[in-house]
Amino acid sequence: MSEGSNGVGTSYLLRFGPAQRVEHFVTMVDFVGLVATGLPQKFYTARWAQWLIGNLGGIDTVRWIHRFFGIVLLVAVVVHLATAFRAILSRKVGFTMAVNKRDFNDAVQTLRYYLGLEDHPAAFDRYDYKQKWEYWSLMIGNVIMILSGLTLMYPAFVARLGPGEIIPAAKVAHSNEGLMAFLVITIWHIFNAHLHPDVFPFDASIFTGQISRERMEHEHPLELARIEGREPGGHGH
Ligand code: HEM
User: Fold this and answer.
1) Is the N end or the C end of the chain the one with fewer CB atoms within 10 Å?
2) Position 137 in a domain
3) Ligand 1 contact via 42 beta carbon (within 6 Å)
């Protein structure tokens, strides 16, 4: 972690390295591409869907664009898992996304704080329980979308491996999980990254890589204490 300054007294810490920023950008663009070419196929009778399919070059083109973005997602997930495993096994970084008992206690404490039953909200480490929830939902969702998507891409091959019912089941799973992913990202993720009072109007840290020390103190005090080599809540080194 390095520390910089914007010249007006606010110090910044590096929260996301270049690889993480590029990964987020690629996944973001890819997801928009998948939704824009997937949902019109699901709702093909709607006027907006027919308009979109027509403007993207017709249904054949839309299907190929969707498959292209699908393969990009597959590669991105494989690269992500390989990089994460390597970094964790080499002990360069801790398994900071691991869910533990503390996350459940943090969730309860935060809810109690919102209800006025607690004086302080929970103090978080590198990722809070909501960020972990979102990460794991996304990873599990990606695996479902990739496996069901590949099944729809190669139905004859998959039907040779197991019962034929797998294909219509994959279609239902892909179609509904795709709609749910779109709703989760637009409602939950946009709220947390843009509309949440802590970050409004926009949390730019995943694009700039930087986060202010003030935000770290407020949102990730346990990680900040570790970086600065002191006990949480203390100030010296
Ligand atoms: C989050 C990512 C994704 C979303 C939101 C999404 C969404 C959708 C939707 C809504 C449909 C239409 C289903 C229906 O007709 O009811 C669809 C079809 C399809 N998707 Fe996806 N999808 C995603 C990822 C993928 C991936 C990763 C692959 C491949 C590896 C893939 C391959 C396909 C295929 C092959 C079809 C059938 C249409 C065709 O033959 O081209 N999708 N997708």
Assistant:
1) C
2) yes
3) yes
